[in-house]
Amino acid sequence: MTATMHKPVFGRILLKLSGEALMGDKGYGIDPAMVSVIAEEIKQIHALGVEVAVVVGGGNIFRGLAASASGMDRASADYMGMLATIMNAVAIQDALEKLGTPTRVLSAIEVREVAELFIRRRAIRHLEKNRIVIFAAGTGNPFFTTDMAAALRGLEIKAEVVMKATKVDGVYTADPVKFADATMFQHLTYKEAIERGLQVMDTSAISLCWDNKLPIYVFNLRKNGNIMRVVMGERVGTLVSTEIPADWT
C-alpha cells in the first residue's frame, strides 16, 4: 500500500534542519540543488494537509561555538550564527515558493526587510492559513543552540513531534562513521538519551521535551522520502519519548 493511501499520523510538525544539510556535498555554504530536494519533500507532506514549521541551523556558514573556541567572544559569535540561520531560512523560503508553496520566515531578531519578527500567535496563525513557517535566528539569545530553539518553538506552536533530520539513520550506541559495530536504537526514553550522553539533541533541549512530553524523531535526511515516511508513521529512525509506544513492542 502506498503512503498516499494512508493518513498522516501527525497534523503539525516541527522539522529541525541543520545548516550542514543545506550544503549537500559542498564543504561550505548553500547548495541550491540540495535545498530544492529538501523543499520538494516538505511540499509533499504539506500537500497532505500537515502543518509544517521548520527550524534551521547555520553551521554551513558560521558556527558560533567553534568561533568562540578560537577566541571570539561567545555572545558575539552566537549572534553571528543567528544571522547565518536567517540566510538559510531565506534560501529554504525561496526554494519552497518556487514550488508554489506559501511560506513565511519568522526571525527571533528583527530584520524587517527579509523576515517577520517572531510572535507566537502570528506563527500559529500562519500555520492555520496553510503556510509553511520557517523559524530563524534560534531563540534570539546567545548560549542557546538551534536544538533548543527547535524544542522551544515546537512547544510554542503545539507541534506533535520534533523531527530532527540528520546525516545518519538514527541514534546509535556510538558514532557509526567511526565505529562499525555501533548499533541503532529504534526507541529511547528521554532519560536514557541523557544518561547515555547520546547525540540526540543537546541536554537542555531533551530536558525541555521531556518535561512537556514532546516526542523527538531522529532520522536520515539523505534518504529520499524519509520525511514522508516519518509523517506517515513508518518505523524509520529513532523515536525518543516517555515510553515505548504500544505498537512497537
Notes on the protein architecture:
The protein has 249 residues and is α/β, with parallel strands linked by helices. The chain has a single domain, classed as Carbamate kinase. 35% of the residues lie in helices and 18% in strands. It is built from 8 helices and 11 strands. A 9-stranded mixed beta sheet has the order 4-3-5-2-1-6-10-11-9, with helices on both faces. Strands 7-8 form a two-stranded antiparallel ribbon. The two termini are 23 Å apart.
Q: Quick summary of this structure?
A:
Helices cover 35% and strands 18% of the residues. It has helices at residues 32-47, 64-69, 74-98, 120-128, 146-156, 190-195, 203-211, 226-231; strands at residues 12-17, 51-56, 103-107, 116-117, 132-136, 161-166, 171-172, 184-185, 187-189, 216-220, 238-241.
**Percentage of residues in strands:** 15-25%
Instruction: Give the termini distance in whole angstroms.
Output: 23 Å
Number of domains: 1
Main structural class = alpha/beta
Biggest sheet statistics: 9 strands, mixed
Question: Notable features of this structure?
Answer:
single chain, 249 residues, alpha/beta, Carbamate kinase, nine-stranded mixed sheet, two-stranded antiparallel ribbon, 8 helices, 35% helix, globular
Topology summary:
Layout: E1 12-17, H1 32-47, E2 51-56, H2 64-69, H3 74-98, E3 103-107, E4 116-117, H4 120-128, E5 132-136, H5 146-156, E6 161-166, E7 171-172, E8 184-185, E9 187-189, H6 190-195, H7 203-211, E10 216-220, H8 226-231, E11 238-241
Parallel strand pairs: 1-2, 1-6, 2-5, 3-4, 3-5, 6-10, 9-11
Antiparallel strand pairs: 7-8, 10-11
Helix pairs in contact: 1-3, 5-7
